[in-house]
Specification:
There is one protein chain. By secondary structure, this protein is of the alpha/beta class. The chain has one domain: 3-Layer(aba) Sandwich (Rossmann fold). The chain is 46% helix and 15% strand. The chain has ten helices and seven strands. Helix 1 crosses helix 10 and helix 4 crosses helix 6. The longest helix has 16 residues. Bound molecules: adenosine-5'-triphosphate and magnesium ion. Magnesium ion binds next to helix 1. Adenosine-5'-triphosphate binds next to helix 1 and helix 8.
């Protein structure tokens, strides 16, 4: 059973932080664990909005300013959460750094395209300077073309730890969001659900 604080961070907007954070929190609940989500992106409030759309009470989503992160983490832990997933803000460096400071693992979603790969260095630096382990997960990978293999090569040049699981470009994620759910819940037999399960499986073996 996974038991850790996971920060899903990327300075790049739209990389898939909120999608990955919510998917992993729900995967943990599906596996019988107790998850909690911290929405550190108070400005956009994506995870908090998902929490409001959601009919099920679990996992709880708390919108939190970076200054209160320690207290909120302690409260969630004493409430029994064994996986706390922090959905980080884009661009805002201080919030990301604070999240990385408390994280056992920083997971960095990255689309397999040049603008995203160029933008990844500051996020990896942020994680490294906080002393956190960081791993990149390629997200929204097109089914065709050399995008994923070329991105893998580029990330190897950067000496980044690369998650062996990649997530494809799957509309199921956005559809599930509208119902306050994740693809594992709305389309359990979909490729999107299988990829999230594989990502959670990797998390289980690597933390
Ligand atoms: N694997 C995927 N397949 C298809 N669409 C995806 C995938 N991952 C994310 N998306 C879509 O891309 C958009 C951005 O995703 P998301 O909100 O998770 O990114 P983010 O990094 O949290 O963005 P921000 O930086 O604005 O917080 C959303 O519409 C989401 O549904
Ligand atoms: Mg987001």
């Amino acid at each position: 059973m996974v038991a850790c604080t996971l920060a899903v961070l990327s300075q790049k907007g739209g990389a898939g932080k909120s999608t990955v954070a919510l998917a992993l929190a729900v995967a943990h609940e599906c596996a019988g664990g107790r998850a909690a989500v911290i929405d550190l992106d108070v400005q956009q409030g994506t995870a908090a909005a998902w929490g409001r759309l959601r009919e099920q009470p679990r996992p709880p989503v708390s919108a939190t300013l970076p200054q209160r992160l320690r207290q909120v983490l302690e409260a969630l832990r004493s409430d029994g959460a064994n996986l706390v997933v922090i959905d980080g803000p884009p661009r805002e460096r201080a919030g990301g750094a604070e999240a990385a400071r408390f994280a056992d693992l920083v997971l960095v979603p990255c689309r397999p395209a040049a603008p995203d790969l160029i933008a990844i260095a500051p996020t990896l630096d942020l994680a490294r300077s906080s002393g956190a382990r960081a791993a990149v997960v390629l997200n929204a990978c097109p089914a065709r073309g050399q995008w994923t293999s070329q991105a893998t090569d580029a990330l190897q040049q950067l000496d980044a730890e690369l998650c062996p699981v990649t997530l494809g470009a799957r509309i199921a994620h956005a559809k599930a969001f509208m119902a306050g759910q994740t693809a594992q819940e709305t389309e359990p037999n979909s490729p999107a659900a299988a990829e999230v399960a594989a990502l959670y499986g990797w998390l289980e073996t690597s933390t």
